[in-house]
Amino acid sequence: MKKIETALAGVFILEPEMHGDYRGYFTETYNAQEFERLGIWDAFVQDNESFTQKKGTLRGIHFQQSPMAQSKVVRAIRGAILDVAVDLRKGSPDYLRWASFELSAENKRMLYIPRGFGHGFVTLTDDVLFLYKVDNVFSKEYDRGIRFDDPDIGVDWGISEPILSAKDMSSPYLRDSDCNFVYDK
Q1: What pLDDT, on the 0 to 100 scale, is given for residue 185?
Q2: Where are the alpha helices (DSSP H) in the chain?
Q3: Which of 9, 53, 108, 126 has fewest C-beta within 10 Å?
Q4: What whole-number distance in Å separates Cα of residue 104 and Cα of residue 125?
Q5: What is the pLDDT of residue 170?
Q6: Which pLDDT value is given to residue 113?
Q7: Mean pLDDT, to the nearest integer, of 20-46?
Q8: pLDDT per residue over 166-181, tens digit each?
Q9: What is the phi/psi pair of residue 174, to 5°?
């Protein structure tokens, strides 16, 4: 597996090694020893799957508060998305910076997002199947979101009228949220 640094410290693109022939392909998407070799020591405990029917659907920006924060490895196994990570750790050199990445069934790329980051994506195609590997279980009590169009962050989603859930439409701006992430060197 190949690890590619991004503009956000701690956020990595992961490219699995593909083994293919006329029948198709085989790839290893997770191996604890390989992840440790790449510097990812999270103990992943839960896999999640989401399906999105329509191109232009935006999900995010989501996170779980500490102490239930989550690191994630995300990937699209059908369709394509523009995936976004936002550094929400007060005191971080990258605080409020965001980066976006195209993840698709075609490019097979995965994205590692550490604790302290918000996460969201917009679908670039219809019928997107998206997988999350997380290092902490879901906690409704600590589940949070911030506005996808927060002007203090300024994510360029590449879309003017996204399809949004009621939750995403009513999420607060970061300045009005109770986000409790703090940068720890």
Answers
A1: 79
A2: 32-37, 166-170
A3: 53
A4: 10
A5: 97
A6: 98
A7: 96
A8: 999 999 999 999 999 9
A9: -55, -45
pLDDT at 129 over 90: yes
As a whole number of angstroms, the distance between CA 67 and CA 181 comes to 10
Smallest CA-to-CA distance from 16 within 32, 26, 2 is with: 2
Indicate the pTM of the whole model.
0.96
- For the chain, which domains are there? 2-176 (2.60.120.10)
d(C-alpha 2, C-alpha 147), whole Å? 33
Scanning 38-123, the segments in alpha helix (DSSP H) are none
Q: What is the DSSP string of 92-111?
A: -TTTT-EEEEEEETTT--EE
Is the confidence at residue 45, as pLDDT, over 90?
yes
Q: To which residue do tokens 């698709």 refer?
A: 104
37-to-21, 84, 155 alpha-carbon distances in Å:
28, 25, 32
Task: Kindly compute the dihedral angle of the four CA atoms of residues 22, 2, 40, 111, in this order, to the nearest 10 degrees.
Answer: -70
Average pLDDT of 3-19? 97
The model's pLDDT over 98-121, given as tens digits with 9 standing for 90+, comes to 999 999 999 999 999 999 999 999
Q: Coil, strand or helix: which one is 11? A: coil
| DSSP category for residue 154 | -
- Give catalytic residues, as residue numbers: 62, 132
